[in-house]
Design a protein that fits this description.
By secondary structure, the protein is α+β, with helices and mostly antiparallel strands. Helices cover 34% and strands 20% of the residues. The strands form 3 sheets. A 7-stranded mixed sheet has the order 10-9-11-13-14-8-15. Helix 9 packs across helix 15. This is Alcohol acetyltransferase.
Length: 496
């Protein structure tokens, strides 16, 4: 039987060539619940959601000239969390699903290989899983009450084995977990090819960018809802300085002690979204640019080799769906590079914020993004390159990625403000988001008034995170810190 297949999109090819032991190109989205997770109800919710996401059925295959996604009959199995965060998902020549759903205590996590989907697509999937799960748990709770078993905690599920492997509603022959009005996400849609394969004469749809800035939530991973004029009352940008900094220069590269088994070091800071947003508004910049500037300041303050004429550069992903409508969960983002060279003028946090914001805005317009991506897609589709064997293409992409990495110090991804459908919104107490990283990275996501900032790194050092927290507390923001152990000493201390 012939199975549906599709070539990888423009953004996905680099993930295959650039993955490594320290950075397997996996990212994680998590939801913290108000009670212990019921694995059987979660399995039922995942299965119902999985059937509407044909993309998530795919496995990754290698052809002579390209990689491609192919439909499979594999089914996902929810598992308890045992591996380190963002453990590798893709293994060459092995047919595995490119995502996993995990649970631990009150937390449900979705991990995705980045060649499959971006953060927005993964968030759609997790949101639907959480909605289905909340409906199942609500129905289980009502059923227990009807049977006079109100003392049992519905989050733990019924006693005894469940031969179907599904949740309580499935045991009663009911399936209230799927929303019949929810869209079905197919496998083959490639938004890059749709919008950028040929020069489009029509202008992209208009977007109310000022409204996004007023809400100050940068759009989903991977992205920033930026590109408009600054909010009224914002400070003016230093345009001359900004133009001088638009020329790419060599960037400082953060170094440190590698984690013992190449696992990702992840540290979470939880803060009030309103309080941090107020700091960004005071500088007249978007939330993402404020976080990027604070990250650069923290790196500089804790890196002994930085000084005058040191350039710190950041990569910031932009969700293209805000300008070019797409319902595909496949990768559909672009990255924008911003930088600041210290010692050539004022280097305080406010100045750096405004300089970075001044670089970002003109590059995050629909016109600028379309021009950039049309060139990339045309290059990818050149007849000569299309007949180059895949291993040679991998080598070329590795060289390109190596050169790109040399021009970056950090990366910042802001998934923005998340509001879940009503059944899930009432049960979720917080959300988290982070990625495996070849360099220090900051990932942000906000939910129910809480902004979670997760720092990931291939290094054990956390001095820059402490400095970042100090910058926030100096601005009057209360910070809560959480971290998983990575070194032998930390693991031994946790076990004792």
């Amino acid at each position: 039987m012939r199975r549906a297949w599709v070539r990888l999109d423009n953004a996905s090819n680099i993930f295959l060539a650039a993955r490594s032991a320290a950075d397997p190109k996996v990212f994680r989205l998590s939801a913290e619940l108000d009670r212990i997770v019921d694995p059987r109800a979660l399995q039922s919710a995942v299965e119902a959601t999985f059937d509407r996401y044909q993309l998530f059925h795919a496995v990754l295959r290698r052809g002579v000239f390209w990689y491609y996604l192919q439909a499979s009959d594999l089914r996902p199995r929810v598992t308890a969390e045992e591996l380190p965060t963002c453990a590798p998902l893709y293994q060459a020549d092995k047919r595995h699903l490119l995502f996993r759903v995990l649970h631990h205590d009150r937390r449900i996590s979705l991990e995705v290989f980045h060649a499959l989907a971006d953060g927005t697509g993964a968030l759609w999937f997790l949101s639907d899983v959480m909605t289905a799960y909340a409906r199942l748990c609500t129905l289980d709770h009502r059923d227990d009450h009807d049977h006079g078993d109100g003392n049992r905690d519905a989050a733990h599920g019924p006693a005894g084995p469940d031969p179907t492997g599904r949740g309580g509603a499935a045991r009663r022959g009911e399936e209230p977990v799927a929303d019949p009005a929810a869209p079905v996400h197919g496998l083959t849609t490639d938004s890059f090819a749709h919008y950028f394969q040929r020069l489009r004469r029509t202008r992209p749809p208009a977007v109310d960018l000022d409204a996004d800035f007023r809400r100050a939530a940068a759009a989903p991973v991977d992205g920033e809802r930026a590109a408009g004029r600054p909010p009224s009352g914002g400070r003016p940008h230093h345009r001359a300085s900004t133009r001088a900094r638009q020329i790419r220069t060599g960037a400082y590269r953060v170094k440190g002690t590698r984690t013992p088994d190449d696992r990702t070091r992840a540290v979470e800071l939880t803060v009030s979204a309103r309080d941090v947003l107020a700091l960004a508004r005071a500088e007249g910049v978007s939330l993402t640019m404020y976080l990027t500037a604070a990250f650069c300041q923290a790196i500089r303050a804790t890196s002994p080799r930085t000084g005058r004429n040191t350039t710190l550069a950041a990569s910031v992903p932009v969700n293209l769906r805000q300008f070019f409508p797409s319902t595909s969960p496949r990768n559909f983002f672009a990255t924008i590079r911003v930088e600041h060279t210290y010692g050539r003028g004022p280097d305080d946090l406010g100045t750096v914020c405004r300089l970075l914001d001044g670089q970002f805005r003109p590059r995050a317009t629909p016109e600028a993004l379309a021009e950039k991506l049309q060139k990339l897609v045309r290059f990818e589709r050149m007849p000569l390159l299309r007949v180059v064997p895949r291993p040679v293409k991998d080598l070329i992409l590795r060289v390109v990625n190596w050169g790109s990495n040399r021009g970056l110090s950090v990366a910042v991804s802001n998934l923005g403000r998340v509001t879940l459908p009503a059944p899930a919104e009432d049960a979720v107490r917080g959300m988290q988001f982070h990625v495996s990283a070849v360099r220090p990275q900051l990932c942000a996501i906000s939910h129910a008034g809480l902004l979670t900032l997760t720092f990931t790194s291939p290094f054990t050092e956390t001095d820059h995170i402490r400095e970042f927290a100090r910058l926030l507390t100096a601005g009057g923001v209360a910070v809560t810190v959480g971290a998983a152990p990575v070194t032998e000493a930390e693991i031994a201390e946790l076990s004792s």
